[in-house]
Amino acid sequence: MNAAARLVHQSVISRHLVLSHFLTRRQITVVILALAVLLSALSIIYVTHVTRILHAAYQHNLVEREHLHVQRGQLLLERSTWMMQARIQRIAESKLGMVVPDHKSVMIIHE
Hints:
single chain; mainly alpha; 0% strand; rod-shaped
């Protein structure tokens, strides 16, 4: 074995000895559990944040839906105003020169 390979091999062994000397199995388990609790807490914070953002967007969409509902009602009212029979008849008489026929000029045809 060359010198570099020996150094690498010795450092791996020495790391293992240092880890086994300083950390027991119980301590490693406690460290892993502490990391799991920390990760769980951070994920709860993230999910709560995303939930608040989505709830705010939902509330905004509800307000926009209500506004669009009111606007649709106004447009339907305006359409019904424009489609009133009296208004159409007045425009037909004034701009187009049309008149309502009298009863004598109306002929009913039966097949």
